[in-house]
Amino acid sequence: MAYVKIDDIDLYYEDKGSGLPIIFLHPPGMGHVVFHEQEKLAEHFRVIVFDMRGHGRSGLGSKDFSISLLANDLHHLMSELGIEKAVLLGYSSGGSVVQEFCIHHQEKVAGLILCGGFSEVSDMFLQAEFRIGKALVHKLDVLSWGIAKAHARTEAEFKMLRRYIVSTNPNLLEKFYEEGRRYVCTNKLSTLHVPFLHVTGERAFYFHRYQTIYKKYIPHSKLVRIDAAFHELPTKSSAELNHIVSKFVTSIELSHR
After folding, report:
1. Packing angle of the helix pair 94-104, 67-80 (nearest 10 deg)
2. Which of 18, 75, 155, 169 sits at 20 to 30 Å (Cα–Cα) from 50?
3. Mean pLDDT, contiguous 10-residue spans, the chain (257 residues)
4. Domain locations in the chain?
5. What is the pTM of this model?
6. Domain AB hydrolase-1, which positions (predicted)?
């Protein structure tokens, strides 16, 4: 187990492989274990996964929760690990954190990947997901079952994901859902000039409108939809996602040689 001290918390992380670093940021409740299939990318790159504050093995701390606070934690983590520049991948609401970080620390971002990410929550389906999640944070047995069931391909994976979700601090989880629902950075997207990739599932129809937004504000953005896939790409479409991420990160490496 490895930890870095950030203010009044110990932040848990795992660091594998070598080469250009890819740092993965998870959605509310899921912790680093949702990226267990992406750790295979450590064969070619430096892969870093971690539990954001209040999740899994990381401490909660006493600071008021915000997306900016999570982005600041990421900045400290990179500094502690001596990482000057990294590719950031945010899954779902984890994408809000990486966008916030990139807006303020673009010089530290080699590339930005959103896996089912969004710059605002402006459709009724995603709004409903956030409201349902927030309503169930004090019924973690129910919420954990739903999230784990949606992501798991096997009973073992279901148990692993669910066990991690129920370890999340409910009060922090409630704030994460609310802050994530309110987070908006659409008006700042045009300031981003890093390589940008948005991946979603062909069947995750309500994320398609966000790809339209990104293409409007970030003309150089690369947009990908995985055939016959829904939102749970890190687990349900791991092979396809890993291939797409590997190709994107390799192109960044080649452009800097």
Report:
1. 70
2. 155
3. 90 96 97 97 97 94 93 97 97 97 97 97 93 94 96 96 94 95 96 97 94 96 96 97 98 85
4. 2-120+186-250
5. 0.96
6. 21-127
